[in-house]
């Protein structure tokens, strides 16, 4: 019994040390997981910014083209109206 108690006293510190090393490994793994997650979040944020920038550029281009088309259409209608007026005047 005495030897069992001595053996336990010898083994318990070793087990405690083993647990402590395990905790350190878990802490390191958790820190690495946090770093990986932060990197992933940064990459997603950058992708979102780039996508927004591209969408804004496309929208700006579309708006410019649409305004140009409206101006062209208005000019063509105005010219057609003038042609009609001049045709009616020359017919009279």
Topology, pairings included?
Blueprint: H1 2-91
Word description of this protein:
The chain has 92 residues and is mostly helical. It is 98% helix and 0% strand. It has one helix spanning 2-91. The longest helix is centred in the middle third of the chain and has 90 residues, at 2-91. It is rod-shaped, with a radius of gyration of 39 Å. The model has no long low-confidence stretch (mean pLDDT 87).
Nutshell version of this structure?
The chain is 98% helix and 0% strand.
What's the total helix number?
A: 1
Note poorly predicted spans: none
- H/E element string? H
- What class, by secondary structure content? mainly alpha
On the 0-100 scale, what is the average pLDDT? 87
Major sheet, described briefly? Answer: none
Compute the number of strand runs.
0
Which value, in Å, is the CA radius of gyration? 39 Å
Percentage beta strand: under 5%
Helix content: over 70%
- Termini gap: 132 Å
Q: What sort of overall outline do the alpha carbons produce when their principal axes are compared?
A: rod-shaped
């Amino acid at each position: 019994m005495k030897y069992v108690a001595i053996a336990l006293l010898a083994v318990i510190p070793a087990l405690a040390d083993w647990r402590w090393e395990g905790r350190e490994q878990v802490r390191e793994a958790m820190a690495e997981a946090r770093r990986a997650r932060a990197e992933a979040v940064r990459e997603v944020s950058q992708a979102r910014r780039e996508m927004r920038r591209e969408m804004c550029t496309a929208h700006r281009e579309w708006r410019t083209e649409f305004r140009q088309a409206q101006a062209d259409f208005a000019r063509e209608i105005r010219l057609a109206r003038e042609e009609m007026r001049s045709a009616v005047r020359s017919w009279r």
